[in-house]
Amino acid sequence: MSTVPTIDRIDLEHLAAGRVHRRWLRLVDDALGRPMCVPVLAAKGAEPGPTLGICAAVHGDEVNGAAVIHRLFQRLDASKLNGNVVAIPVVNVPAYHAQQRRTPHGFDLNHHFPGRADGNDIEVYAHRLMERFVSHLDMLVDLHTASRGRANSLYIRADMTHPVSAKMAYLQRPQIILDNPASDLTLRGAAHARGVASITVEVGNPSRFQPEYIRSSVVGLRSILSDQGMLHRRPIDLGPPPVICSSSHWLYTDQGGLLDVLPKVTDRVEQGQEIARMVDAFGRTIRTWAAPHEGIVIGRAVDPVAASGARILHLGRIAEEGHPMIPRDDV
Predict the structure, then answer these.
(1) How do residues 222-255 score in pLDDT, each as one tens digit?
(2) Could you tell me the pTM of the whole model?
(3) What is the pLDDT confidence band of residue 23, given thresholds at 50, 70 and 90?
(4) Nearest to 72 by CA among 173, 183, 221
(5) Which CATH fold would you assign to the domain 248-318?
(6) CATH class of the domain defined by 6-227
(7) Beta strands 268-269; 6-7: pairing state
């Protein structure tokens, strides 16, 4: 197996066209002065065009996205590509090694963008990812999953008032799209602030591969590439249109015990419908919860052990007619 070179910056201009390149991109150094690198796959197209960035594992245990990137590149012919596709299968290397969401110091990387050049360790990490990866992009797809103890549908967070981001979200063809402005300290928010059209794709559950969600996400990425003229168009069965949610919120427990969440992800619930029960250590029912309004289950708790303030389910409010969205016929 050939050695993969280590680089300090991605230099798309000088990469050979019509090929896929593999590099280790140095971001920071550890306490022994050794480089801490992220793996980069860069498909340099035979012809010029836009640059799509894809990344996964901003949280270290969210590995479905890495499989999506690998599957995409296994079938991506750079000699027939217009533009570039640059992907990082594992962004948060310290958390990935620890097989956990946060870094060993307890930082959530996705709450520290765009970072600072002169900040603490997580801020420098975030800043250099922005400068050495995001700065090259026209579009970004940030792949995530649920966190430990929870399950997600295949859903997208996107600003549906932003035309390019909205179309990317719709072409990705998830089960649910949540209209969610990118105005926070996430990677998506920081990229959007720099003019990079960005969406977050939640690909199911943590610490596992889910083939159906992986396959669907790859088809969605190829649809985005085709829509941008980066790949030759070919007929693709996009499947049913996603459910659009205008807002969402998590429901939480107000006492502790063993929690049983009744609806599954993507189930629709009615106002007043029972959605969860809790029993105490003796098996006695001590609490039930009802849906505060009708909606769709975006995500849910799957770990029964629940203290006060534990999450129950992520309930989306389905958008009313006339809400900004991409009509099916336009895709």
Answers:
(1) 999 999 999 987 666 667 889 999 999 999 999 9
(2) 0.94
(3) very high
(4) 221
(5) OB fold (Dihydrolipoamide Acetyltransferase, E2P) (2.40.50)
(6) alpha beta
(7) unpaired
